[in-house]
Amino acid sequence: MRLHRLDLTAFGPFGTAQSVDFDDLSAAGLFLLHGPTGAGKTSVLDAVCYALYGAVPGARQSGQGTTLRSDHADPGTRTEVTLELTVAGRRLRVTRQPPWERPKKRGTGTTVDKAQTWLSERDPVGGTWKDLSRSHQEIGEEITQLLGMSREQFCQVVLLPQGDFARFLRADAEARGRLLGRLFDTRRFAEVEKRLAERRRGTEARVREGDAALLADAHRMQQAAGDTMDLPDLTPGDPGLADAVLSAAAVARSTAREQLTVAHCRLAAAESARTAAAVALDESRERDRLQRRFAEARERAARLAERAAGHRENEARMARARKAETVAAALDLRESADTDHRRATAAETRARALLPAALADAGAAGLAAAARRAAEERGGLESARRAEQRLTRLLDERSDLDRQERADADVLDEAEAWLAQWERTRDGLREAIDTAQQAAARADDLAARRDAAAQRLTAARQRDDLAARTEDARRTALDAAERATRARAHWLDLKEQRLDGIAAELAAHLTDGAPCAVCGATEHPAPARRDAGHVDRETEERALADSRAAEVAHAEDERTLSTLREALAAARAEAGDTPVERLADALAELEDAYARARDAASLLHSAQEELRRAEREHALRTAARQEAAVRAAARVGHRERLDRERAALEEELTRARGSARSVTERAAELERDVARLTEAADAARTAEDTAQRLKDADARLADAAYRAGFDTPEDAAAARLDDAAHRELQRRLDAWQHEEAAVRAVLAEPGTAAAAAQPPADVAAAQRAAEEADRRVREAASARDAAARRCAELDRLSARCADGARRLAPLREEYDRVARLATLTAGTSADNDRRMRLESYVLAARLEQVAAAATVRLRRMSSGRYTLVHSDDRAGRGRSGLGLHVVDAWTGRERDTATLSGGETFFASLALALGLADVVTDEAGGVRLDTLFIDEGFGSLDDQTLDEVLDVLDSLRERDRSVGIVSHVPDLRRRIHAQLEVVKSRSGSVLRQRGGG
């Protein structure tokens, strides 16, 4: 993978568009990325990571949708990062835009645009770019597949963070395991451990469930068998549990079968007795039924004899009603005709009461003729009605003309008065505009002078503050240098004293028979002794730590002093040597003059608007005066035409109204007369028709009553029955006949009469005997069923216990096998003497590869002194596998990496980072990494070590690699020609590139 170009806009501290030409920087092989603290050096690396993976490294990735955007950017500029790179032989360009909260184009407030991503590839022949995708997911999968690394691996392999690897050197096994697990993705081995542990728990639970189920079935069998089964005291896990349960079940099944045979015999005897009692009960019930039936028939016959006279009267009444049915049609016709005649007569009376006295006695024909005459007169009023409507509209129009005349007169008076003042108003407004324009020009000039004065005043205040802080920092740096010198001298003195007495320190570890670490002899006749002023190793190391802490504090104070001096020089260049008080007074005078000019200039807009309004008003007033004059001339002729038409309409309406107040009122009177006359004529004709129909109905009714045998029509109407009375009478006659036939049939039955001659039946005694026999049968059947259920339950539970015991044997074997594997991979098995988990075992192999790859560069950086080795020894009572030690060739001793000094820790961690990059690259499929970045840590190296480290980094160019160093160290600016400088200011940081190819 090789980076070619990075373009970023409104990203991090960069408010404007910035570009990095990695091809130009990489031509030198080694380039430096430097700048003051907080300028944005790390943001350049963040932009590379964000372009590839859509996220920034480490903890900075949280909340990136808002923190990635530069606070210095213009609100209308969108954050964007574009990276061109070559990977797997393909030239790609990735462009990413995070979510953007921008101002709305219309209205107020803001809106959020979604994140955007583009992936393009350049044609190697034509050099044109071809779009591949705009999907976040597709682009992320494509980049990860081409690089062969996740974002965490990329940040550890390409963006080498020295602080992380320094902590990695000093970390314990668990911390190293977490980092290596993320880089080498050993989650599948941890998943194997987890799956084995889960399977162990699952099989163990199934074995326990099997034992519990077997024991539960044994207790169920004991409950089913009652006192016939003797179950020993058993618990889950007992070896003989299954045999004991099956043996006890066999004895219980045999006893239950014997009990079932006895119950069958008892049930057969009880059923025979119940059959005999049931026969006796049926015979007693039948005799009792026949005796009661005969007695009831005798009682019903007596009641029929008592009601015989009423029955004969009902028969006679039914005969008269049947004859009256022949007269029913004539009766209904006469009643309907009489009702219609009375209704028509009443309607005629009401209609005639509304007519004039002259027409009260007129016949139907006379009333109809009068109605026709009134209708003809009403139709002749239609023309007069239209004339009346036109007169109303004409009067309204005449009133509108009068109102318009008065309104136009008001408009003319008001326009004349306003136009008389026009010249004076216009001249005054033009003079106010000229004055405000002069004040605006003066305010612009004063604003520019005021801003320049304010900027100089701010710079002067910063100059004075930085001068004081610089002096304090200088004194602090001098004090820190003295302390560092004294601490180093003290450490060197102690080290020299310890070397003088090192023989006594070595002699303290000598034992008889053990070889000497120096000469190899096994006899020690005169070992050295410690004197009173002996310096031990702990004292020397404490002095060394104090010296290093003092050097770090001195370096930090020097960096602070350098930063303050640069800021002071910039402030002096901008403010000069003018005192702050003089600059403040000058600014106050400019502020006062600017305020007065701004107040005067603020009247410009209002004066211009007032002049424009006055000009528009002048045009409107002039036009209104002209229009009012034109309308007044047109109204004279219109008014004369309206007066002539009004006189003709009033004459026509006077003739049409007659005595009424209006044509409409006269038409309403005629409408009412037509309606009344028409209604009266219709009522008269209806009354005449109903009177004739009533006369005809009376004649038909008299003839029908005579033929039916009645003396008068009234007798026929009295004998007639309605439907409800007829049905009730017929029901009584039918009920009498049915009851009489039923009584005769019962009294004629031979079996009923014979049963009545016998003694009364005792049904209660027979019922009690049958119930007792039935109870004994139920008890016997219940005992038989309980015995059968007991046998079936014991058979079922025995079979289930036998089946469970067969299934439990292979399951227990599986549990033993899985448990051995789970404890072995988890590092808790006795066979795993180093207590190493499976994932730790794989990571230990990776760590051994990393240590071997790192040693190649570490030996060169340390001039052959140090070698990194992997250790799988156990640390205390913990687990083993991820130990990391350093072998010191000067002493031949192997020690922990936590004992390295600050500079030694840096190049050891750098070597470890480079070695890890090589191993992860091979693990990812051998992706070629042509561009690497190393972030900070060079400040802890002396000149000789720094040369050796730079030689190692320079050797990375052997395969056309380029290495970018991110550092504050000033000496690196002199040693590395190609540089990318980050310059910060109040308006945001910018990038400056120089010294490339």
Keywords:
6-stranded mixed sheet, 17 strands, 6-stranded antiparallel sheet, 68% helix
Strand tally, please? 17
Radius of gyration from CA coordinates: 62 Å
Number of helices: 27
**What is the helical fraction, as a range of percent?**
55-70%
Low-confidence stretches: 62-66
Question: Which class do the helix and strand fractions yield?
Answer: alpha+beta
Fold and architecture overview:
There is one protein chain. The protein has 997 residues and is α+β, with helices and mostly antiparallel strands. Among the domains are: 224-288 and 761-805; 422-601. Helices cover 68% and strands 9% of the residues. The protein contains 27 helices and 17 strands. It has a 6-stranded antiparallel β-sheet with strand order 2-1-4-5-8-9. The protein has a 6-stranded mixed β-sheet with strand order 10-14-15-3-16-17, sandwiched between helices. A hairpin with a 4-residue loop joins strand 12 (883-888) and strand 13. The longest helix is centred in the middle third of the chain and has 79 residues, at 422-500.
